[in-house]
Amino acid sequence: MYLSVKGLTKSFGDLNVLDQIDLDIPKGKVLAIIGPSGSGKTTLLRCLNALETPDAGLFEFHDGWQLDFASRIKKNDILSLRKRSGMVFQTYNLFPHKTALENVTEGPLVVQKRDSKEVIALADNLLDKVGLKDKKDLYPFQLSGGQQQRVGIARALAMEPELMLFDEPTSALDPELVGEVLQVIKDLASEGWTMVIVTHELKFAEQVADEVIFMDHSKIVEQGPPEEVLKDPKQERTKQFLERVL
Ligand code: ADP
């Protein structure tokens, strides 16, 4: 297991968005999280790298490091948690005034203070890997949505995380650009990356995920291999959701 999370709870004011979630993320596996809008999927993902601070929840990592949000958390612990994962956002969140290459080098240079020659070589490689070698000097506005999202993926990889988190990575894209981004994620899956992907693309989830998690009303309702959860769900709520979206 890469990470086990127990009792993850998060409220915004009176609204309980995550209710005692238990989640195991196996090393080298892909988890896809599906479910209706407002069920807590994005918040769950954001809690995994402390973009949101959970109210409670015990995080136990494969190397023995633990973080218990029910106790007082130090800022350094939040930073340590954040370092372990890379996040790819729905709306890319690139720096508009930096080139594709500069977007990828920014984190390793500024946050990690790594050697610039080494970082530029790494960024070149990563942009090549996502199929953007010839676009590295272009600015976000000169790139299509699919290309911007691929820069977003290269940027997250440049921080050399242990876990990759994707928050509906294709939902802002025109349909014809979805495939190129999903292909990059599939390539990462076949390289053995540990990944958690919130997605509306059920066909993609079926193809890439080792395990699918269906969330509704702040809870995990059902989870298992895609052929079970997506094709032969046990829970009525999962069935209803799949009937609505398929
Ligand atoms: P999903 O990703 O499944 O659509 P979210 O995790 O984005 O669900 O949101 C779950 C609920 O939490 C929604 O009702 C949403 O409005 C609410 N919510 C999310 N983020 C915040 C926030 N920062 N402040 C207040 N409410 C929020």
UniProtKB/TrEMBL annotation:
Protein's cellular compartments: Cell membrane
Domain of life: Bacteria
Example of a GO cellular component annotation carried by this entry: plasma membrane
Record keywords, A-Z: ATP-binding, Cell membrane, Membrane, Nucleotide-binding, Transport
Gene3D superfamilies associated with the record: P-loop containing nucleotide triphosphate hydrolases (3.40.50.300)
Matching CDD domains: ABC_HisP_GlnQ (cd03262)
UniProt-recorded Gene Ontology molecular function terms: ABC-type amino acid transporter activity; ATP binding; ATP hydrolysis activity
Principal localisation: membrane
Residue ranges annotated for the ABC transporter domain, each copy included: 3-242
Designated name of the protein: Amino acid ABC transporter ATP-binding protein
Organism: Radiobacillus deserti
